Batch of 2 targets.
Target 1
Amino acid sequence: MFHEVTRKGLNPDVIFYNTMIQGLFSVGRCGDACQLFDEMQAQGQTPNEYTYGIILDGLCSNHQVEEALSLFHLVGDSKLKNNIVVYSILIDGAGKCGKLDIVRALFHELHVKGLQPDVRTYTAMIRGFCRVGLLREAKNLFLKMGERGCPPDNVRYCVLLMDILRTSISMMWRFFYSKWIEEVTHLMLLLYRC
């Protein structure tokens, strides 16, 4: 489609590039998306905040958190560095990949810059904690949300409850499975001795 548009002599704008880049990321074609981003700039189109949001989200969604962080630091644009949506994208992406050191560093950076986390940011943090079984930290942060004037809405309650249940069930399964293995091993040893 992209080549067809350019073949017809039309000049793609930033919105067109953003749409194409997002589509490529959504089907896992990260290399093509990044190549199109480079081509966009070579054609004189200046990326906007939405472009960077799409690229950062696409990289994070495809488990390329380090690449997303490199781009984030490389751009260094004050609009990008002071944008809570961008931070939320990075926190969510790093959390999905289990990179809590990055999640914590980004969250700390928000406070240093005087940025106020929103519901999305808190939810991304809490989900990251849940994914790795840090339910106490998730609960504490959940309670701080309300204290800091950012109460979760009904959708967030449901999402967080599902994450906590999923983590709890997984942890319980591992616990009971290990106990079952211990019992089976014990029985096998008793049978072996007979």
Target 2
Amino acid sequence: MGVTGFGLLVLTGLAASGVLQAGAMRIYTGGDVEAVNGTDVRLKCTFHSSAPVNPNAIVISWSFRPLKPGREESVFHYQQRPYPPTEGIFRKRVQWAGDVLSHDASIVLQQVKFTYNGTYTCQVKNPPDVHGAVGEVRLRVVTTASFSELLLLALAVGGGITAVVFLLVVILSCRRCRKRRQRRWGRDGEEEEAQSPRKERKDPTVCHPLMAAHLYQSQSSVEIDSSDGMISDPSTPSSSSSSEEEPSSDEDSFGYSD
């Protein structure tokens, strides 16, 4: 009795310290899943093991239990590599979608039928973790998508359309602002040109007053004889004029003598 009691105490201490962890495997699934007839659906199953994952020793099993009374059917098996079913209603309809090193044991059912309605169980064994509860996924195959899925789809489409329209509005607004700025700059330039003083164009035939006075003085002081082209001073009498004046003096003298 004493030895037995001591052994129980040792086992209790080991379990409390974590050396013995029976049933440490934990399975997580998606719960209830809905899929439209003829489409593909992913059955999610992840696990957590207290021991490191050994790809050569881990075993994953999927099974199916229909809604109506019937026998349980194997859906998928994994041991070092995937083993899809070779017979039954799931033949060529199951695809491996997991990764044991990432603690993922999910599968994909392709082109689901109404006969796929039922409960799917996911069981993972990773020695020494070989005990634990199994995960369950309840699949419901429907004719059309549910209202929630349609709502999500409508929201996604509406959001995309709204984003496109918003971008178009922004682009058009930027173009309009650019055109307005160009027009405003053009008007400002025309106003500046109109307000700036214009330079008076000088008539090349019109002389400066000082230059005109100088020309007048030079013309009055110098006369050009048109007959022989000689320049003479108008203040000094010419020889012809003196010769013409001499006879008149003689005539006066003769008249005086008579």
